[in-house]
Amino acid sequence: MAEARRVIPDIDFNGKSAKKSLDGLTEQIEYDDVASGASDTLSIQVFNKDMKFLKGWLPKKGDRITASLTFKNWTKEGADKKLSCGDFLLDEMKMTGGPLVATLGGISIPTNSAIKSTNRTKTWKKVSIKQIAQEIAKRYGLKLIFDGPNYTIKSIEQTDKSDSSFLYDLCKDYGLGMKVYKNKIVIWGKSKYEGKKATATIKRADFIGDDWDYTDTLEGTYTGARTSYKKGNDSKEISIYVGLVGEKAKGARTLKISEQSDSDARYKAAAKVNLENEKATVLTGTIFARPEIVAGICVTVKDLGKADGKYFVDEVKTKVSDSGTTQEIQLHKCQKQLKGDPPPAPPAPPAPAKKTYKVGDIVNFHGGTHYYSSYPGARGYRARAGRAKITLGPNCRGNGHAHPWHLIHVDSSSNVYGWVDEGTFD
């Protein structure tokens, strides 16, 4: 007899399995997977039978939770897939009566939670984003995964702000995504990841009860940005434009930005436009759970008409209960990304063609030294500038090539009569 497909949660508290403690009591598990900008969360709802969670086994706030979901026989018998949810800090417990229910809430933060709770003031100078992230990761014993453009910053202030908040805001300003997952800081280039191939397809039939919502808007979206900043001791205001189309083009929508300095103003302006444009086309809905659908990947949407296309997965909320396993998904359509690279410098003018001379040409001698012979070490004497005739050139027989041209003046303005260097006439 074929085994039914099901989802088996595997939950540890402080490194010890909670399978026996939660066996038969778990009503719902909810795992919220976010690509960037917020911490992943885990919620475990259990039946508080016989007041077990007040009288007996009771986790404590601050306990560490490790969770994963195994999708047994999910696409066919024997086809198991595991979704690793990560590590969480138990930060909230709720209990209610009628019915007796306990809810345990966890948030994905490292073992050393000071990364979120301790504010710091520091001036960072001549440092890259990756170097800042490496220092912060090292401070809390975390591993860093960095997969994006690495901008160098002249100077930036971290003022009474936690390392987590400071690093996230810094990444956001430069078009980078960031999250803390399984004791790692993960930083990735948004433009790079939206440019990746879709790894899954979501069709209209995948939405439970046709539960989906599509929004396509122009309001609050832009084709470019004009950014202004002060530069120099005289605080002269500089204004630059970056855009997908010309600022005066028909239908252009320009975001106005004011920066404190010129440090990477173009890149930061482009990042703000791209961030705003993420809300241009949004698709949300509830689908039958698929463990391969996770935050941070691209998917192809089909069978939704105008809503079809390539989307980036911003958030996936997986819910496991006796009634089934579902995923609430939030996607935004991949848009053309604005790059902050400065316009290419105009091509250098072509070098003037080198003028050629031959025996018999009348030239203008610049003045200088004329020599008794064309060979190195020949004695030389001063000669006045003026018009002269070429009588022998570099290709003549016996030419020593140190002073390859022989000139004879053609009027009294010059007294040149001998061998001269290359470049002493035109």
Secondary-structure blueprint of this entry?
Layout: E1 6-13, E2 16-17, H1 19-22, E3 26-34, E4 41-47, H2 52-55, E5 64-72, E6 81-96, E7 101-107, H3 114-117, E8 119-128, H4 129-139, E9 143-147, E10 152-162, H5 163-173, E11 176-181, E12 184-189, H6 190-194, E13 200-203, E14 207-216, E15 224-231, E16 236-243, E17 254-258, H7 265-277, E18 281-288, E19 298-302, E20 309-321, E21 324-333, E22 362-365, E23 368-371, E24 380-383, E25 386-392, E26 405-409, E27 417-420
Parallel strand pairs: 9-12, 13-19, 15-17
Antiparallel strand pairs: 1-2, 1-5, 3-4, 3-20, 4-7, 5-6, 6-7, 8-10, 11-12, 14-18, 15-16, 18-21, 19-20, 20-21, 22-25, 23-24, 25-26, 26-27
Helix pairs in contact: 4-5
Q: TL;DR?
A:
Helix content is 12%, strand content 46%.
Q: Any descriptors?
A:
elongated, 13-stranded mixed sheet, 7 helices, about 425 residues
**DSSP helix count?**
7
**Through-space gap between termini:** 100 Å
Specify the helix fraction band.
Answer: 10-25%
Low-confidence stretches: none
Biggest β-sheet description: 13 strands, mixed
Report the C-alpha radius of gyration, rounded. Answer: 36 Å
Overall number of strands:
27
Shape: elongated
Instruction: Briefly note the structural class of the backbone.
Output: mainly beta
- The proportion of residues in beta strands is over 45%
Average pLDDT for all residues: 89
